[in-house]
Design a protein that fits this description.
single chain; 276 residues; mainly alpha; 0% strand
Amino acid sequence: MFSQIAIDEKGARASRRRVSTMVRRYAILVLGSAPRMLELAYWPLVQMLMWGFLQTHLAGSTSLFANAAGLLIGSVLLWDVLVRGQLGFSLSFLEELWSRNLGNILMSPLRPAEYVGSLMVISLIRLLIGVLPAIFLAYIFFGFNLFSLGLPIAAFFANLVFFAWAIGLTANGLVVRYGLGAESVVWLAIFSILPFSCVYYPLSTLPAWLQPISAALPSTHVFEGLRALMLDETFEPILMVKAFALNVIYFSGAYLIFRHFLKVARIKGTLMQLGE
């Protein structure tokens, strides 16, 4: 019994070592490059400033934005959490394809679950580098403090990040299946759900036949929750529960898709040709 526990502990330590090694590899690539760091922060900053100035203009002409200062800025910042979370997850994977290194990594003792875990960690690092400066400048320029929303912001953030990882896993799986000819899916996937996520307008705005499709997205419940919090000063936990339940389904399905395509690529011996 004790020998089995020792073996399990040794295996767990080895697994953590492999994950941390991959995280260090990606962190060095990002943190050791000033252009990469600038690129991560650039678009969130530009979007926040553009929508922030629009919010300022609308606040002077419409009662909705006058009574809910920061609603548009908050929506933009949370949307960036979703976008940067997914791109941070997928771009680290694509870099292995661009450098023709994925086959070498997956021929090592690194397991698929460990590789996915390392991509999740580096996604968080890249997300924080990209979004935190925008959050800071939103406070400096427009007096909007995202963290003033309190504990609900943690539920918003967690649900958006897990949904981002599910989208990233699915996109990565498609790239494994079809090669770099499908890399555009990495960018298309996240923006294809923008009209249905109700980022800037309530769910009721959509046509009745489209609302069930939109309600099937975890992101929709997050942005509905943000509007309820900022307009009605009410936190709706049921929306977060729905988002979490959907995330469990999507993330589990995405992981199975990724593992399946990875297994097929290994059997067919196409890992070294994915860049072609």
